[in-house]
């Protein structure tokens, strides 16, 4: 916007100093480990610090795509994509409906908004424990409802639905963020647009389709991107809900954790293969980047059309 | 809803249609739609019932939970909380978490301030590159193993400082959000301050800081929420369990008492309690703050 290239202060030194302090922390603790992942993915780094580290080229990648682990890796990849897609779609769909509902002048709507946002604050472990209890197989509330209909379910123990239940928990936990982004978008829509649409004889569906949706395009883009990036990278929920090494809910990032640290609680495992874990991490990084940019490109093009 | 497609040729009809067509908000105020309230009620049940059920379970004796898992508690066992607190060593964990959350979120907010401002103002060379890096932070690959080795080499493994620095940069969205917010601070203010002989440091902390308080508070809270709930980095970077934050402690507690739901529910309530209470105090600020930050 305004030409801000001119520098008003007498000296650039303090700017550089303060900037550098922040930049060093960010570079050392965020960028260096990230770049090191690239390097490590071409080595046979183990968990133990004293073992020799050799450059092994693309062996880790060959191993990932190789036949020995193919079915496991395809399984984790499919789970990740299903999880991310469903979580994003439900978050956007339900989130938009809830945001529109909570944008209406209902009595106590600030309270409702706060409640919807609360699980985000409660976080992964509490959310996972709450829903483990709700889906408790020995007489939990949801089991009781199912019993009333004469059926039962092993819930997280049932490989056919475990992943979908994790999606449900993820949506429950993240919905508030989506709703808030949509609410801020809805509040930015000038009400005269609805008035004009009304004069033109648009019914409520048409007003939604031709006013709300186009005006919300930036919020939709933001939510889709946040949803994808979050869901593609998240695994803490699965980690707490269904434990590790559960094939039905195995995700890419959980594989990274397992390969790097095994089952040990933070201790270095002789069997841990961190070079291989780094390769999985890179594959995930490329996948997240590709999907995000493809989505962004598509949404931007749509935004331009609307 | 209203069928407002009225023929515009009939002036009386058009007039009659006006309250319908204009200001839909006012319309909603007049007839409070039952359907909307039913929908809200359903949402509230989905979001509140699990918490109430958790609380209900936390108050039961194991015997009562086995015989009647779903029903309302008859003989509240408040001692469950004391028991869970003692067995889970949550006292230490809460202090750790408070320290990590406050220190980590402060570092993250500080970085957002000192980096976001000059980049947004183009007071720094390579501003575009930095902006790109701020976005890239969100996509960085899962670096658990290299973070582990970095701290090992810096002799910060299994230290509170190492963990704090790692979680301090963990939420990379701060500088991005802040540089967006800086656009709402007029550049004339910078110039006026400079003419009055106010140095950059002083300007940043005594002028920009108070002006940007809503944005900085949002950034701080977003990071604090993330750090409070972080479990994996803590497991990987802190081997000594007495340094763990409470979420990791709760996860370990779950591993030990996975079959004792009354105790586990009490432990979960202990962890959720401070979050809920804290949230009640900041919710308005948080919800509005995030709306504002996203808009900016």
From TrEMBL, chain A:
Out of the domains of life, which is the source?
Bacteria
Q: Which Pfam families match?
A: BPD_transp_1 (PF00528)
Q: Which residues form a coiled coil?
A: none
**Where are its TM segments located?**
21-42, 81-102, 114-134, 161-189, 210-232, 276-299
Q: Which GO terms describe its biological process?
A: transmembrane transport
Keywords from the UniProt entry: Cell membrane, Membrane, Transmembrane, Transmembrane helix, Transport
* Database matches in Gene3D superfamilies: MetI-like
Q: Which GO terms describe its cellular component?
A: plasma membrane
Tell me the membrane topology, using the record's own terms: Multi-pass membrane protein
Keyword Acyltransferase part of the UniProt annotation? no
Q: Which family does it belong to?
A: Belongs to the binding-protein-dependent transport system permease family.
Q: What is this protein called?
A: Carbohydrate ABC transporter membrane protein 1 (CUT1 family)
Q: What lineage, starting at the top, does this entry show?
A: Bacteria, Bacillati, Actinomycetota, Actinomycetes, Micrococcales
């Amino acid at each position: 916007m305004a030409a801000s290239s001119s520098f008003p202060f007498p000296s650039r030194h303090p700017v550089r100093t303060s900037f550098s302090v922040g930049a060093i922390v960010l570079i050392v603790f965020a960028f260096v480990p990230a770049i090191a992942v690239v390097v490590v993915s071409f080595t046979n780094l183990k968990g133990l610090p004293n073992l020799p580290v050799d450059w092994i080229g693309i062996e880790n990648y060959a191993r990932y795509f190789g036949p020995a682990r193919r079915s496991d890796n395809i399984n984790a990849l499919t789970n990740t994509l299903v999880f991310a897609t469903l979580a994003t779609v439900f978050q956007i769909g339900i989130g938009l409906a809830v945001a529109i509902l909570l944008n209406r002048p209902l009595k106590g709507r600030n309270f409702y908004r706060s409640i919807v946002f609360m699980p985000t604050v409660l976080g992964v472990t509490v959310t996972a424990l709450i829903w483990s209890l709700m889906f408790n197989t020995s007489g939990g509330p949801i089991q009781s409802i199912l019993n009333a209909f004469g059926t039962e379910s092993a819930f997280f123990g049932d490989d056919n639905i475990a992943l979908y239940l994790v999606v449900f928990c993820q949506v429950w936990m993240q919905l508030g963020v989506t709703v808030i982004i949509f609410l801020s978008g809805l509040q930015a829509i000038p009400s005269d647009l609805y008035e004009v649409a009304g004069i033109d004889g648009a019914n409520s569906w048409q007003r939604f389709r031709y006013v709300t949706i186009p005006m919300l395009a930036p919020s939709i883009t933001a939510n889709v991107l946040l949803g994808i990036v979050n869901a593609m990278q998240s695994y803490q929920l699965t980690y707490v809900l269904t434990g590790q090494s559960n094939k039905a809910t195995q995700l890419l990032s959980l594989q990274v954790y397992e390969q790097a640290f095994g089952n040990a609680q933070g201790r270095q495992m002789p069997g841990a293969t961190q070079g291989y874990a780094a390769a999985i991490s890179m594959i995930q990084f490329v996948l997240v980047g590709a999907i995000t940019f493809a989505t962004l490109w598509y949404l931007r093009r749509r935004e331009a059309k609307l | 809803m209203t069928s407002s497609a009225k023929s515009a040729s009939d002036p009386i009809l058009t007039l009659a249609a006006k309250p319908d067509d204009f200001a839909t908000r006012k319309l909603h105020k007049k007839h409070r739609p039952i359907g909307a309230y039913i929908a809200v009620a359903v949402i509230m049940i989905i979001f509140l019932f699990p918490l109430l059920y958790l609380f209900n379970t936390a108050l039961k004796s194991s015997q009562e939970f086995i015989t009647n898992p779903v029903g309302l508690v008859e003989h509240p066992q408040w001692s469950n909380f004391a028991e869970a607190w003692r067995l889970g060593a949550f006292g230490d964990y809460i202090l750790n978490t408070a320290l990590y959350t406050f220190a980590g979120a402060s570092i993250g907010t500080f970085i957002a301030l000192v980096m976001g401002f000059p980049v947004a103002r183009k007071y720094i060379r390579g501003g575009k590159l930095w902006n790109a890096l701020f976005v890239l932070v969100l996509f960085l690959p899962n670096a658990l193993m290299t973070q582990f080795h970095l701290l090992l080499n810096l002799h910060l493994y299994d230290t509170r400082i190492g963990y704090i620095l790692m979680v301090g940069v963990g939420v990379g969205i701060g500088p991005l959000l802040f540089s967006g917010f800086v656009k709402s601070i007029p550049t004339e203010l910078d110039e006026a301050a400079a003419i009055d002989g106010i140095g950059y440091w002083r300007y940043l902390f005594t002028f920009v800081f108070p002006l940007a308080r809503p944005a900085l508070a949002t950034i701080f809270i977003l990071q604090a929420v993330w750090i409070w709930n972080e479990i994996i980095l803590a497991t990987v970077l802190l081997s000594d369990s007495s340094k763990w934050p409470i979420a990791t402690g709760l996860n370990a507690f779950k591993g030990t008492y996975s079959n004792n739901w009354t105790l586990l529910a009490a432990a979960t309530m202990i962890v959720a309690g401070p979050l809920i209470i804290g949230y009640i105090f900041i919710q308005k600020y948080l919800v509005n703050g995030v709306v504002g930050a996203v808009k900016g």
